[in-house]
Amino acid sequence: MTTADFIQIAIYVGLLVALAPLLGKYMARVFTGKKHFMLPALGWLERLCYRTIGVDSNKEQDWKSYLWALLLFNLFGFIFLFVLLMCQGFLPLNPQHLPGLDPFLAFNTTASFVTNTNWQSYGGENTLSYLSQMLGLGVQNFVSAATGFTVILALIRGLSRKSTTLLGNFWVDLTRSTLYVLLPLAIILSVALVSEGTIQNFNSYTEVHTLQGATQVIPQGPAASQIAIKQLGSNGGGFFNTNSSHPFENPTPFTNLLEMLSLLLLAAALPFTYGKMVGNIKQGRIIFGVMLVLFLAGLSLSMYSEYSAHAAHAAMMEGKETRLGLTNSILWSVSTTCASNGAVNAMHDSLSPLSGMVSMVNMMLGEVIFGGVGAGLYGILIFVFLTVFIAGLMVGRTPEYLGKKIDAYDIKMSMVAVLAPNFVVLVFSAIAVMLPSALTSLNNAGPHGFSEILYAFTSAAGNNGSAFAGLNANTPFYNTMIGLGMLIGRFGIIVPVMAIAGNLAQKKITPPSAGTFRTDNMLFAGLLITVILIVGGLTFFPALSLGPIVEHLLMNAGVTF
To answer: Which domain holds residue 233?
Structure first.
């Protein structure tokens, strides 16, 4: 690595650390209903939304009503998107006359975008019309991210309120997060991307003739608007098949920086929003610090692995972003798998074994290293509850967090939230390995082939969406199994988190005393990191040993596949 590489990483991390608290403070004002600078411009639209759907913005819901509204909204979105994809061949804004998707691919794509995963078993420019991209995928990029906001807001209220059953109003939280957070940021980023050369048009594809006399088709489309929200909303679905390595999506080093920053910005800001809303900013800082430490640890290992690649992999730029260099490829790979985003600017299948393992581990830990918008924060709070419970058992104190006792019900629900995605990763991968028809989709033999399967289901369960991409996932088996995995990975966590929020809201808040176990200091941060790593290590170490770890050892021994 050169000095320039270190400077690029420092600029990226520095911007993230500087901007996250500012955005977090703004979002706290939005979600607590206080005055903010966007209210005069968009307040009328917020009120119009409530009148249109017949919602009383002053009426709050208990956790069951809140969850029911969330599930019903997402079910409607699922049905709408599925029908749209199936019927796109008969709909307008389809200049290339692309046909509707087959049912298996339509199911997978629908599950992917509704769950904020954006896994793609297709090439965007060859499969989807402009209408499907905008009205289908673009809309879900907004509302699936907003759904993540609603869940964490309900959990925050469960922690900060006492002796109540009310957790806010789902429709209000959904509207505010979309209007005041996602939409303004997406507009700003879209304009910035267009100014740098990202395309935004409704032209038909352009046919050109190369200097060698060959014919080439140049795809077009309204790309910038979708790229902006796919990054900000931790979605990640590429408008084009090669995602953010395509010059129409990511044309310059500046757009690369903007898009990478957008990957983590909202998720990094939410811990500061959390600290403000629970009335203890130190709690938010500790959570942000834990996320940042885990991020930097993974980045360091990934950088070391790529820059010290074995001679057998001497061509380390294979599959990397050659315009921007190796460092930007690896920084993006770590950021996108920490962010539950899935956008890529390089081929993860070309990562060195340990670097590929870092990307998997980022997802296997529950996407809590920043994670998806909202999802990363409520995911790490699950580990906070487990840490408090374990620490309480060790020192003989009643487990408490923010004055709320963490009881058996909270821990049971927490374990359900932890085990649901882990079940998908291990069991679904085992099924794929045992089926000869599933193995025919592999591009590589040996441990790397196993890693391709393991990565796919890890990405699905973690609602990440990135892939090693050496696996042909556009088959009925993988479209179905990965689609189910994404649904379980999303709602298998949301449901228990909402149950925990409802249970916590009913409890009284116990004032801190000399016997209170502090959760806002470095000791607790260390315990939290340890619990996260132990749970991930115990669960996935055997599988990782069969994939990237043994591949690394064999590579050093000169064995390739």
So the answer is: 26-205+219-279
Q: What is the pLDDT of residues 284-324, one digit of tens each?
A: 999 999 999 999 999 999 999 888 865 455 456 677 778 88
φ/ψ region of 267 (left if φ > 0, alpha if ψ in -120 to 50, else beta) reads alpha
Q: Report the domain count for the chain.
A: 2
pLDDT tens, residue by residue, 429-444? 999 999 999 999 988 8
- Are 268 and 385 contained in the same domain? no
Q: How far apart are CA 493 and CA 420, in angstroms?
A: 7
Q: In terms of DSSP H, where are the helices of 347-425?
A: 353-364, 375-395, 408-423
d(CA 9, CA 300) in angstroms, rounded, equals 11
Is the pLDDT score of 349 beyond 90?
A: no
Q: Tell me if 243 is assigned to some domain.
A: yes
Domain boundary among 236, 251, 279: 279
**Rounded to whole angstroms, how far apart are CA atoms 467 and 474?**
13
For residues 489 and 58, is the Cβ–Cβ distance under 8 A? no
Nearest to 362 by CA among 400, 333, 392: 333
Cβ burial, residue 445 (10 Å; 0-12/13-18/19+): exposed
Torsion of CA 149, 154, 157, 163, to 10 degrees: 180
